[in-house]
């Protein structure tokens, strides 16, 4: 006897099978959840300002705006100011006597938004900035560059550096009068391979200058080089910072680089 397979169908909940997806059915696309007005308010707060809030400010600007004003008494008695607010955990809320589970979860979600924004602000904040070539004869390539620097500063190409908690930014500006593109580069600490602090001699070897070489595995350097553009610096072509504060910059970068590696390994 021949059986017709179309007579049978899989029933969910019986043997763990699920009905087959028909070709005519459209795939389900998960849309990003829309933020509530309270969440938008919290995201617009400045963590640096929140950390200076008094207990009254926390009650007025945070708890009441979140619809949790009934917690104000517990927060006041336990002196929860702005700095303490961003240190709260769910265990602390238990100690404060907040027994409603939904309110605890909601409050921790809002505090989590503040903590993430604080972390992002700390990572993007500038820890050092400077311009090369730095002032002084020792930081010029040769006597010709020295003459240009002192006679016509605008005719000297400059590189602007900014070191943050996430990586190193630098922008190369061409000399005035040259219609060339301003180049902006970013080096992420996750791709750093090595740092080397050196003492070099420039300007006819009369002066000693501090120089920091940064070896970075630039993923974009493996791409095809566009016609007329200089080669992209890669892992074997270090990014060089010649500046009197190179030793200070090396320590800042090394500390941030170590934190980035710890986060990646964790």
Using brief descriptors, characterize the structure shown:
4-stranded antiparallel sheet; SAM domain-containing protein; SAM/pointed_sf; DNA polymerase, domain 1; 7 strands; single chain; PH-domain like; 266 residues; 2 domains; alpha+beta
Summarize, please.
The chain has 266 residues and is an alpha+beta fold. Helices cover 33% and strands 20% of the residues.
Could you name the ranges where pLDDT drops below 50 across 5 or more consecutive residues?
Answer: 5-18, 221-226
Question: Could you state the CATH homologous superfamily of the largest domain?
Answer: Pleckstrin-homology domain (PH domain)/Phosphotyrosine-binding domain (PTB)
SSE run: HHHHHHHEHEEEEEEH
Topology, number of strands: 7
> What is the CATH class designation of the largest domain?
Mainly Beta
Classify the helix fraction into a percent range: 25-40%
What is the number of helices?
A: 9
Q: Average pLDDT across residues?
A: 80
Beta-strand share of residues: 15-25%
Category by helix and strand content: alpha+beta
Query: How many structural domains are formed by the residues?
Result: 2
At the fold tier of CATH, the topology name of the largest domain is PH-domain like
